[in-house]
Design brief:
CATH class: Alpha Beta
Largest sheet: 4 strands, mixed
Strand content: 35-45%
Number of helices: 3
CATH architecture: Roll
CATH topology: 2,3-Dihydroxybiphenyl 1,2-Dioxygenase, domain 1
Strand order of the largest sheet: 1-4-3-2
Helix content: 10-25%
Order of helices and strands: EHEEEHEHEEE
CATH superfamily: 2,3-Dihydroxybiphenyl 1,2-Dioxygenase, domain 1
Amino acid sequence: MVKSIMNKLIPELIVESVDESVNFYQKYLNFEVIKSVNEGKCLTWAWMRKDNVELMFYSRKNGENEVAGFRDKKIGATIILVIRTKEIEEIFAKVKNGVKMESELQKTDYGTKEFKMFDNSGYLIQFLEDIES
């Protein structure tokens, strides 16, 4: 039997303002801050959780100092954060009028209900729920 040495992937997203990202994820998606780091009055890093979903946010300024390759990269890039849920209609109702939507709530031909939205930094988030057969 092969021993598992990896147990979780936690995306760390580069953002212009960690404070604004924390506020967005608290307001619209009910995430909670697990840990954070301040520099003066501003957050430079935050780790957030909602149920089994975890995200980290890192300020562009600090990220560029640590990883020079981030200097020329556009925030939001070409990543889609996919979150499975069992409450897609409730989440959609909460966010649909307050955030930039990429798609409406819809049923797919591969057995899910889903929608896509952008967070305040331009990251695309796709919520999906399996449809009961």
